[in-house]
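Collaborator request, handled under Task 6.
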Amino acid sequence: MRSLLVVTAVDAERDAIAAGWPGEVVAVGVGVAAAAAGTARLLAGNAYGAVISAGIAGGFGVAPGGVVLGTSSIAADLGADSPDGFIPLSVLGFGADRLAVDDELRAALRAVLPGAVEGPILSVATVTGTAAGLRALAGRHPDAVAEGMEGFGVATAAAGAGVPFAEVRTISNPVGPRDREAWRIGDALAALTEVGRALGKLGP
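Structure tokens returned to the collaborator:
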């Protein structure tokens, strides 16, 4: 894969991927805004062939240590609250809240990550931590496989630069009530290193 850029939120994610892959991995910060700004800065003036948003995430029905591959990136809480429930930005008519991943890049990743679960990956500003929050989010996005905080920002920057985008996440915990004893961050980081090794199979 020519000039592949991998973007993470934090150093621990960057280091985990770099332990398995010697390519360019950059931590740009937590959240959609930091991800968009950092990715846009990296893409400006550089001839990257593709960009991947990668890191750990909460999973919808995917066990800790599992790998998910995004089919699209959704800004799940970008919109308006109302007495009738949440109204997405796209329904309000103010812009996109879902960006597709590049089909060719996704197919290449699927080939080297055959065990990955595929589906939409949600980007949120506030991580879900209650049963009520889980019900609301899963009700709006029943096919989602993971919840992160940066993918939509990376996707937005990639779209602006005309660069193919994909998102890969490893699962550290189930989405839902906040239970730190259920977190398996070490397993998720170890899985990211395996993702890094898989990236090496994509070719030059």
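The cover message to the collaborator said: "The longest strand covers residues 50-59. Residues 4-202 form a domain with the Rossmann fold fold (CATH 3.40.50.1580). Please let us know whether this matches your experimental observations."
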